[in-house]
Every structure is written in C-alpha cells, then in structure tokens.
Amino acid sequence: PDAGMVPHTIMLPMETSSTTFGFQTDSLENFRLEFMLYPSFGLQPIGKAVALSSMFTTASTGVARLPLLDRYLKVVAEMSFEFLVIRPFEGAQLQIGGKVETYWKSTNPGVQQNTGVHGFGSPPSRPQVSTVTNTPMSSAMFASPMSVAESTGGSVQNVPIIISSSLASEHVCVQVQVCRDGVPVVSPRMYIDIGSTSGVKLRVHSLTHAEFKCVMQKAPIEQADSVRPDAESGTAAEWHEYLHDGGFTLAEVLETLPMRLGVSIQVLDNSQSWSGGSKLGSHRHDINNYIDAILKTVYHESLRSARTDTHAVDQATSDQRKSSEQRNTIFCSYSPTICVALNWKQPNYAVFLLTSGREPTAPSADADDVRSADAPSFGLPTSHLSLKEAVRFACANNLLGIMCSSSLLTRVPALIGNVKDNGLLLVSFGPGNYDKESRAAQKAHGVDALICDGVIEYEADDHLEFAI
User: Fold this and answer.
1) Residue 261's domain is classified under what CATH number?
2) What is the DSSP string of 414-463?
3) Is residue 401 a part of any domain in this protein?
4) CA 349 from centroid of its chain's CA atoms
5) Calpha distance 126→261 (Å, rounded)
6) Over the Cα atoms of the chain, what is R_g?
7) 352: domain range?
8) In this structure, how many other beta carbons lie within 10 angstroms of the beta carbon of residue 9?
9) Confidence class of residue 365 from pLDDT cuts 50, 70 and 90?
10) Which of 43, 58, 75, 373 is the most buried (most CB within 10 A)?
11) What per-residue confidence (pLDDT) applies to 124?
C-alpha cells in the first residue's frame, strides 16, 4: 500500500495468511498504530487496540500482541502482528554524479500475457522512480510476497523488461557477517571450530573482531591457496580463494582487492542474533546497526578509493576518471528483511534476493558453509521463499533481480521466462552450473547469470555470467 495513504482497510478473513503495510515517519516519538475492528455492515466499532511508540523504539523487529477493547473497555479479542523498523542510513550518496555512482538498468516496454496457474500472473504496479536518483525506491517498507495481488482474467499488461544494466567486470563473491563489536568480517561459516579436541564451535556474531582473528588463526580451515595473488595478473578466482575464508574484515577485502574486480557481498542471515532465538545468552544485533556497519564500510572504502584514484588519473578525461574510481558492487541475501533494509537504506548498489525455491531445512553445525550445497543451508527457515514468492517480493520492493537454484530452473525451464517477464534479472547457482549442457540450456532460455566458484563474469552482450 501507498505509505502516504491512511487508514488501510483489511477485509476479514484475509485471502492470504498475512499481509503487509508500510508507513513512513519523520520520528518514532509521536508514532503509534491504531487498530479498529468493524462489522461487515455498520459504523459502530467492535473493538480497538493501540500500539504505542515505545514498542517500536525499543526494538527494530519483533512480534506484538494487543488486546482489543470494546466501548465498555472489555477485552473482546486479541490480535498479533510482526513489525520491522528500518532507520535511515546517513552515509548514503543521494546526489547524482557524486563520488559514489548509482547503478542503472535499461528497460524496454514489453507485453506480458497473464499466464494463470502455469505462471506468476502479471506483476504488481511498479513503484515510482525517485526524483533524487535514478534508482527506483520502494513504496512499501516491507512488502510481503503474499500481499501482492494476483491478476485475474486474460488481460495483457505492459511490463518493463531489463535489457542491460551498469553491472560489469568480474565480481568476487564474499559472504559477510558482523562481529559483536560491529566489525564486518568475511566468513562463509555460521560456526568456527576453535580447534580444540572437544569439538567446540563458536558463532561468528558472538565474537569480537579481535577474538575472531585469534580463533581464525587457530581454526583448522583448509585453504587451497593462501598465497596472495598478484594485483595485476591475479585472476578473480584466485582472489576469491585467497579472501573468502581467510579471516579478513570487509574493509581489508575492499582495500586489498584490485579495483578492476567488482565484489558481490552476500549478507548472511544471523536472524537469531537480533530475534533472540539464540541460546546461552548470545549477543543480539539490532538489524539496523547490522546493516549500517556493512554499508558504512562499503561507502568509506568507495570514497577512499575515489579520492586516491583522482590523483592518479588527473590527466584523464572525466569519463575515464569516473570509470577508474568506481568498483562495481552488488548486495544479495537469503533474508527478505535484509534485502528490504539494504534497498531502503541506500540507492547506489543493486540488491538481489537469494532463494533455493525448495522446502527450508534447519541449519546445522555440520552444514554451516554457505557454499557447500545447491541450496545453502545458512539461511534460517524464514529466509527460504518459493520462486513465485521471491518474484512477488522482488517486484514489490524494487530489487534488481533474484538468484535461484539451477536445479529448479533446469527441471522447469519455463520458469526462467516467467521471472524475466516480471522485469527482473535472473541468476542461477548450484552444482548444475558445472555441467556444460545445463549451462547452455539455461542461457538458451534467458538466464542472465550463472554462479560457480566465487567469480562473477559479465559477457560482452551485457548478460551476466556468475562464476562463484
């Protein structure tokens, strides 16, 4: 719903299990939510509940349960809702032509026929483009995939189809978490084995950066090649092997990685650290602080490299200078909450939603490496969406695209066209991308990128080819 239009009306019972509403406010101090329950016919309210501002200032996420009181102040019912508060990130570059460029995408108007039960139906109306930047901004704070209405009938709608984007060069993929003291580190593991004979493992988010460094030095992690690649001749694959699990901070990775290589930052879902699901009193992150710590590092390194390169290319043309200053960067995550926060807090970097497209499986300490399977098990069950839900969510929140399991796309190639008809870039990952026939089949059906072994390569025709 439009954040500027209140009140919102919900017909009971709801057609879906949940629906989502977004609101924008300058301050939470005077913000409150009022819930009124009315009969189907009549103007006399059955009950009323109020959520005060204190509920939203003490935590960024949570579940609230409120009593509905009638006119005689008797409790007639109870209602519950989940909430997410996304606070602005002060370091975002909103000026067009600034030192941190905003990504762009080129679209052509296409025509999509409603495909009914075999497809996803027509996509929802696209939010308006911000007048401040060329990046589309979402009109919903956190649009639930199931809250986007299905189109009915056989109507035909114009759909913008992405034909190219500003994403280019090779990208090195890294998985990022935030330590207890707010330092983003690169680690694909949920737990780190401290190397003791007792088999004790520690969660990354429960450690400080100093503790993380100490544990990583003692951890029995197998590195295929720990030698630092040459800055000029080192391949993207060599840099990925060197950086992805070496105990580096995100700042060290961005400073060390040559500017000719882009970076794909997968923000790992430590939901337990801010939802209170962890046991043994582990540290709880605020999701806003969690995302802000990562964004602050990325923006700081982008501005630092821009200032450094400006002196090195002061004799070049303005276009050459701007090209040399910028590192291509994208974000992705299995968590819809993280994707929404990333997309709302900054306009400069593209955001992709990861989905396995299958039933969720609970993570375990023995399967804690996000690169170990076709559908990485690091994401908690709430972070797994079906492909249909992922498309709805990405469209509703103006994400650039989605990343999906190649096993699903090779079984049902028609899904590829359905995703792209909704104006999204589609990236596939999984063991199937190591098979030549599977790769060729996916490309033939229009997959924009393939992920295999930690490197993202863009082909000359503007299509993406992810090599993780």
Assistant:
1) 3.20.20.190
2) HHHHHHHTTT-EEEEESGGGGSHHHHHHHHHTT--EEE-TTEEEE-TTS-
3) yes
4) 11
5) 32
6) 23
7) 171-467
8) 7
9) very low
10) 373
11) 42
